[in-house]
Amino acid sequence: MPETTAAFTEHDHAACQSKALAYVIAQCEAKGLRLTEARRRVLEILLESHTALGAYEVLQRLNTEGYSAQPPIAYRALDFLVEHGFVHKVERISAFVACHFPGQCNAPAFLICRSCRSVAETRDARPAEPLSKDAAAMRFAIEDTNVEAEGLCQSCQSEEGA
């Protein structure tokens, strides 16, 4: 069974946040990347919960904290964070989540709660064997896959059933 994040379970979220932030800071220092104040704040916003946020939601948060209200500040920070694998874009809902397996995931899959927008990440979503076989038969080399499943987390299932 693939390892997933604790997005849908009780966990020490403060430890979850601090571990991810410490990793990003260390990687930026080791690779000579500039983790500007705005980039760090965008990451911190995304680390506050396992909920996916759209770029404009991030921008609104930045704006309330005194950052420029211009969209480029959020988009540039998100682009940087995605480019270096610190954040993922969840295409299905056009939103962003912090990587919860930084440095350990190459092709994650996402389980998206359609109600609360919480997103759990798996470490690796390599193509299923039937897809790989079909691709090989067509002499197609799969380089990247995007696996996103939408449904209801346990909490939202309980709320809808109540």
Please give a structural write-up.
The protein has 162 residues and is an alpha+beta fold. The chain has one domain (13-161): Arc Repressor Mutant, subunit A. Helices cover 43% and strands 13% of the residues. The protein is built from 6 helices and 5 strands. The strands form 2 sheets. A 3-stranded mixed sheet has the order 4-3-5, with no helix packed on it. Strand 3 and strand 4 (119-121) form a beta hairpin. Helix 3 packs across helix 4. The longest helix is centred in the N-terminal third of the chain and has 19 residues, at 13-31. The protein is globular, with a radius of gyration of 17 Å. The two termini are 30 Å apart. The relative contact order is 0.16.
TL;DR?
This protein has 162 residues and is α+β, with helices and mostly antiparallel strands. It is built from six helices and five strands, in the order ααααββββαβα. Helix content is 43%, strand content 13%.
Mean pLDDT: 83
Helix coverage percent of residues? Answer: 40-55%
User: Which CATH architecture would you pick?
Assistant: Orthogonal Bundle
Annotated CATH topology: Arc Repressor Mutant, subunit A
Order of helices and strands: HHHHEEEEHEH
Radius of gyration: 17 Å
Which stretches are low in confidence, meaning pLDDT under 50 for 5 or more residues running? none
| Structural class computed from helices and strand pairing | alpha+beta
Distance between the termini: 30 Å
Count up the helices.
Answer: 6
Number of domains: 1
Strand percent estimate: 5-15%
Largest sheet: 3 strands, mixed
Instruction: Output the strand order for the largest sheet.
Output: 4-3-5
CATH class division:
Mainly Alpha
